[in-house]
């Protein structure tokens, strides 16, 4: 099935928006996450460097204080050792978590203000869960000129094991390892909070991208739908106009053929009939009887004239052009009643020539097609035809008391005749409805008066004797 060009463009535009949104979605979120992780890593390194510098400064201050207190070190002097230990126990910072500790070169604890049970004990072989020799590494870093070590350790303020970063330096004159450290869980918590905020921003960015994409798709959808509806409306209008042109051309052709039959062939046949009648008179005067072939020719000629007139009237009744719709329906009803014996009751307004020719023709064809169907299928004994103009509607109702039919049957089962009538009425912005039951069938054609109001008013003003359109005459056949 070939799609209209606007519909193809619509699909292409929607597909392009979807693909672009997908690319932007993954590219922007990936780049944003990568950049955020880089910034987070940079911030983490910066904070670590700050804390490292802070630990170096603290350690340098304590070393200076010890050397200031005892310029000449003597580790064997218990008094000096007690003074240094007392100094280390007093130098606290960051609440309970900032303290200094000291070990000798063999791993014996000299000072530990938060864990006094360690003093005097050898912790050379103490290990972390990963198997790292914590005290040995601290002493090794100190002897190497000072360095940092990460390890898990009990946090005094919370009595929980936390990640700790310590800096140790070596006091050569005392042959001690002096160290201090900070717990990194606060920093890790800050970084985790920042990571959550970054993730939240990334999710918001995703939502914005999705919202923009969906909005763009929705706008394109509405725009495309509007274009397609507009094109469909124009196409339907063109099809309707084309259909009406075909109908008008066909009616014009019927009118032309009807006129040719009535004014041409019928007149020729009537002339031949007069000639035959004149021949019969001449033979009578000569006291001769008409030959049987002449009598048969005269009878057949009369039948032919009547048949041609009937065909001419069926193609296009001249009365419709000369006297209008009401008179044409009256004539059609009389002819139908005479031909079928079915009683026809007609209620009509005196419309005369106050309706446009195309509406006259359409309504006449509705009546004509309905009567043909009633004759063929209804088995009716009575038909009523009502034509009225009320409440801004021109309404034509054809009802019979026949056997009816199933209206739930698809419309194509009604025949091409009724479909054509429906298209005719819809062209005039009206509607054709059919209701049927065992009590009979009702066909209703409604056309709004605004369709022919200008023509109606113009003809009424130009008429010397205007007749109210709602006045009705009742005729019984």
From TrEMBL:
| SMART domains, per database record | Cache_2, HATPase_c
Record-given protein name = Cache domain-containing protein
Q: Where in the cell is it found?
A: Cell membrane
Write out the entry's keywords from A to Z.
Answer: Cell membrane, Kinase, Membrane, Transferase, Transmembrane, Transmembrane helix, Two-component regulatory system
Coiled-coil residues:
none
Task: Give the bilayer topology.
Answer: Multi-pass membrane protein
Histidine kinase domain sequence ranges:
256-451
- Signal sequence segment: none
Residue intervals passing through the bilayer: 9-28, 208-229
Give the top-rank taxon of the lineage listed in the UniProt record for this protein: Bacteria
**Pfam families reported in the protein's UniProt record:** HATPase_c (PF02518), HisKA_3 (PF07730), sCache_2 (PF17200)
């Amino acid at each position: 099935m070939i799609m209209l060009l606007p519909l193809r463009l619509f699909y292409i535009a929607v597909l392009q928006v979807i693909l672009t949104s997908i690319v932007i979605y993954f590219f922007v979120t990936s780049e944003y996450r990568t950049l955020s992780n880089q910034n987070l890593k940079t911030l983490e390194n910066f904070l670590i460097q700050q804390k490292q510098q802070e630990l170096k400064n603290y350690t340098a201050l304590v070393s200076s204080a010890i050397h200031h207190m005892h310029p000449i070190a003597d580790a064997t002097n218990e008094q000096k050792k007690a003074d240094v230990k007392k100094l280390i126990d007093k130098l606290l910072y960051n609440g309970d978590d900032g303290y200094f500790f000291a070990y000798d070169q063999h791993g014996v604890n000299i000072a530990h203000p938060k864990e006094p049970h360690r003093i005097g004990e050898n912790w050379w072989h103490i290990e972390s869960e990963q198997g790292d020799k914590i005290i040995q590494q601290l002493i090794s870093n100190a002897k190497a000129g000072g360095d940092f070590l990460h390890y898990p350790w009990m946090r005094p303020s919370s009595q929980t094991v936390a990640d700790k970063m310590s800096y140790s330096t070596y006091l050569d004159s005392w042959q001690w390892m002096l160290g201090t450290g900070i717990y990194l869980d606060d920093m890790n918590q800050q970084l985790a909070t920042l990571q959550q905020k970054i993730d939240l921003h990334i999710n918001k960015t995703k939502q914005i991208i999705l919202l923009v994409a969906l909005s763009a798709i929705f706008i394109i959808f509405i725009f495309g739908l509007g274009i397609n509806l507009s094109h469909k409306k124009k196409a339907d209008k063109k099809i309707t106009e084309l259909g009406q042109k075909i109908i008008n051309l066909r009616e014009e052709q019927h009118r032309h053929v009807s006129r040719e039959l009535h004014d041409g062939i019928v007149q020729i046949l009537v002339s031949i009939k007069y000639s035959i009648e004149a021949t019969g008179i001449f033979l009578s005067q000569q006291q001769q009887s008409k030959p049987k072939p002449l009598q048969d020719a005269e009878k057949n000629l009369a039948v032919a004239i009547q048949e041609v007139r009937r065909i001419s009237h069926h193609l296009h009744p001249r009365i419709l052009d000369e006297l209008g719709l009401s008179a044409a329906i009256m004539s059609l009803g009389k002819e139908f009643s005479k031909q079928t014996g079915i009683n026809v009751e007609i209620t009509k307004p005196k419309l005369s020539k106050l309706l446009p020719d195309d509406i006259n023709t359409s309504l006449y064809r509705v009546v004509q097609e309905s009567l043909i169907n009633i004759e063929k299928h209804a088995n009716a004994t009575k038909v009523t035809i009502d034509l009225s103009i009320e409440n801004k509607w021109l309404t034509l109702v054809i009802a019979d008391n026949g056997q009816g039919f199933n209206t739930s049957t698809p419309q194509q089962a009604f025949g091409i005749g009724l479909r054509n009538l429906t298209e005719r009425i819809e062209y005039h912005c009206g509607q054709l409805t059919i209701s049927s039951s065992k009590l009979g069938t009702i066909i209703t054609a409604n056309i709004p008066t605004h369709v022919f109001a200008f023509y109606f008013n113009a003809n009424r003003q130009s008429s010397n004797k205007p007749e109210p359109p709602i006045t009705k005459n009742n005729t019984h056949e």
